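Recall that a protein's primary structure is simply its ordered list of amino acids. Everything else, from secondary elements to tertiary packing, is in principle encoded there. The following example makes that idea concrete.
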Amino acid sequence: MLVRWCDQEDNTGWTTTATGEAGEIELQEGSRLVGCMPGNQEHLIWSDTTLYAMRQTFDDLIWSFPIVGRNCGLLGQNAAAMVGGRAYWMGTNAFFVYDGGSVTTIPCPLDRDVFDNMAAGQSEKVIAGVNEQFGEVWWFYPDERDGNENSRYVLLNTRDGTWSSGRMARTAWVHSPDLRHPVAVSPDGKLYMHEIGETADGGVIGAFCETGLFD
C-alpha cells in the first residue's frame, strides 16, 4: 500500500530528506495496490477496494491522496481505460466509471455471465482496450469454459450505454493518437490491427442477432 515519488526534476532521487521533494505515504484502505493511470489533472490509484486521486498540492506536502470511491477496487493491473476524460474499469463483481467527481456503478446486463465464469485465480490477466473511433471500451478476460487464458470479451459503448460480448483471444491492446487503428496481441503471439479492412484475418466475418421472447 506504499506510494513513493521522486524529487522534482530528478527521477533518480528517491530518498526522503528535509530539503528535497521526494517522499512516500502508506495508503490505508485496501490490502494491496493494484494499478494506476493518469487522469485529468490528477493520477488515479486503485487498491483492491478503493480508488484514490493523487493530486499536486503546491505546498510542503507535494501530493494529497483523497479517496474518491469505495467498494470499487480494480480487478487487475490492466483492467482500466480512459475514454473521453472518464476512467472505466472492471472491479471484482461490477463495472465502474469515474468522471472526475464521483464513482458510479455501470449497470451491465452481462455481468453475471462474466463474473460467474471468470477463471479462478486468473483475474490479473484481464485487460481493458479502447476503440476511440466508436467510443468503446473492451475487456478481455479468461473464461473457465475455455481455459485459463483470455478468450472472451465484454464491450461497453460509452456513447449510448449498450453492451455486447463475444469470443476473441487478446492478451494486450494498444491504442493511441499515434496509431490509426488499435493493435492487439493474441495468446499465440500474433499482432492484429483492428478496425481495418472488411475481413476477419482474411476470413468471413460471421454475425447474428438474437432477441428475447416477444409477442
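The first strand starts at residue 2 and ends at 5. Helices lie at 111-116.
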